[in-house]
Write a structure and sequence with these properties.
Elements: H1 2-11, E1 18-21, H2 26-44, H3 51-77, E2 82-85, E3 90-91, E4 93-99, H4 104-113, H5 116-121, E5 130-136, E6 142-151, E7 154-157, E8 162-165
Antiparallel strand pairs: 1-2, 2-3, 4-5, 5-6, 6-7, 6-8
Length: 166
């Protein structure tokens, strides 16, 4: 829910700066190919003198092949989209930070002002009274912030989604 509202605000930016796209299947395929190469190396080294090395090649290769295949199938079958920044041709990263209730006033001011430096100075917590969702480009040209407050057993948006463009 937190991520969805941030994404909707980003997709509403003019000129299609941020678009919803499915993640590429290239990386899981590469991982599966690396695993297959490790398994091939095992079959080449069948002399049996390096038992621990052979076993680790089997385990690592099998794990990578299995992960790569499962991740590829999931990405192909899924309709999930993530924000894609068209000018930099890269996917935007997302993270959440948790804050204690005592930091609420300072955090709300910093988010409303779009002051990233002040947000970084506020101490995070393990308590999820306040959750700050952040979606950003790698170069920081677009940053979207949304502050959620945990009340009545659900996270509710506190204020509006703030989008900072540089």
């Amino acid at each position: 829910m937190i991520r969805q509202e941030i994404c909707e605000a980003l997709y509403a930016l003019p000129n299609g700066v941020v678009q919803p796209r499915r993640r590429s299947v290239a990386m899981p395929i590469v991982i599966a190919l690396v695993g297959a190469a490790l398994l091939a190396a095992y079959f080449v080294m069948l002399d049996g003198t390096a038992g621990a090395l052979n076993m680790s090649l089997i385990v690592a290769g099998g794990t990578l092949v299995l992960y790569g295949l499962v991740a590829t199938v999931v990405r192909i079958a899924s309709n999930d989209t993530v924000p894609y920044h068209t000018p930099t041709k890269s996917y935007m990263s997302y993270r959440e930070r948790l804050y204690a209730h005592e930091s609420g006033a300072k955090l709300k001011e910093a988010v409303a002002a779009g002051d990233l430096k002040r947000i970084e100075e506020i101490e995070t917590s393990n308590i999820s009274a306040l959750t700050l969702g952040e979606c950003r480009t790698k170069d920081g040209s677009i940053v979207a912030l949304a502050l959620y407050e945990y009340t009545n057993y659900e996270d509710r948006l506190s204020g509006e989604v703030t989008i900072i463009q540089r």
